[in-house]
Amino acid sequence: DKVLMELIEPYEVRVAKLREFLEDVKPSLRYDIVPLADPYGPAVTDPDLQCLVVSEETRRGGEAVNKKRLQNGLPELVLYEILLMKDPDHAQNEEEKISSSSLRQRLLGTLLRPPRQDPALPSHPYVIGLTGGTGSGKTSIAKVLGQLGAFLIDADKLGHAVYVPGGPAYEQVVAAFGAEILNEDGTINRKVLGAKVFGNQERLKSLTDIVWPEIAHMVKEQIREADAQG
Q1: Which residues pair with 163 in a beta bridge?
Q2: CATH number at 138-229
Q3: Which of 119, 122, 161, 198 is the most buried (most CB within 10 A)?
C-alpha cells in the first residue's frame, strides 16, 4: 500500500524495512543490501553474480546489464523472468498490473493529512502549485485535479499573455530589449527575445524581473476569481 510518504522515506529507513522483510521470509537467507549510485549497480562488476531476476517490463534492463558485463570481461547473467500480478480492478486509464502508480493516482483528491495550520496563510481558497519538468505529467495531473473540482490556472498561458500587445509586460519588455524583438505586426518575437537573454544571466534576470511579477499578479487575480466562484 505505497503512498507518497513511503516513496520519499530516507534510505536508512527503507533499508531497515527491506532487512525486516528478508528476515521474515527466511532468517537463514544470506543477502547484501547495496546502495545504487548508478543505473547498473554491482550487477556489471561483481564476478560472483550468476542470476538476475527481472520482470517482463525490466527484461531490457537485464539485457543492458549483460551487455555491460561482456564489455567488462564478465560472463552474462542468467535472466530469470517473473510474471507481474494483474490488477482485476484496474480502471481504463490505469496500468493492467498491480502498480503503485495506479494507487497514487486513486489517492489524488484525497486529503492524506490535514493542511498545516499557518496563520500567515488564508484558510480559503486552498492553493496547490503543480510543477515539474517537460514530460513529467503536469497536464495529465492537472486534468485529473480539474475533474475532481479544482479551478485550474495555467501559468504557461499567462506567461504568453503578458507579452501580447496591450499586455501588462509588453511596453516594459520592448523598452528594455529594443524594437528589434518585434514582428511586423507589433507582436513580440519570442525566439528573437530568447536569443537575447538565454545564456546571459544578467539579461535573463532583467526579463524575469519584468515578467514574473506580472504573471504572479494575474495568478492572484484568478485565485480571487476562483474564490468568488466558490
Answers
A1: none
A2: 3.40.50.300
A3: 161
